[in-house]
Specification:
- It comes from Brevibacillus brevis.
- InterPro entries: Peptidase_S1_PA, Peptidase_S1C.
- The chain is about 15% helix and about 25% strand.
- With about 160 residues, the protein is of the alpha+beta class.
- It has a domain of about 90 residues: Thrombin, subunit H (Beta Barrel), CATH 2.40.10.
Amino acid sequence: MKSKKWSHYTRVKYPVSSSSLHPFNFFVPIVERVQEGVVSIVTEDAPHSKNVDSLIRSLINEEEQPNTTERSFGSGFLFHPKGYILTSEHVIGKSKNIYVKLFNGRVFEAQRILSDRVRDYAVIKIDADCRLFPLPLGSSAHTKVGEWVISVGSPPVAKEAK
């Protein structure tokens, strides 16, 4: 896939809002353009006891411990229309359950496809019954040191799913 130059985005006629009229808000139209491809990720796992004393007490104590789950939050982005999402490996880790929340507010359970702890990336997949808005993957071969970068993550949820 061919990478688009910055000039491509500056030539596009974006909808004008009062906040985007300020000359330093040139990232606003870009964020508005990609927000539907960015997802929030929530993972659930059994809580990990880091305190040795509490671990020993739980093994000795025969009383039932409350069944709680530990939640972690992160973000990722859709890169394929069939529901493939790129995120960081540290976001999903060894979690038992992975949930993905789209910009429209819909939530789907995701399955782990692959992950690399050393390079800190992971691919997960959702089976969505709605249209998805994947973002194109770029190439670092077309970038130069000193170029600006934006990171868009954990999007706010749209008020009403239509």
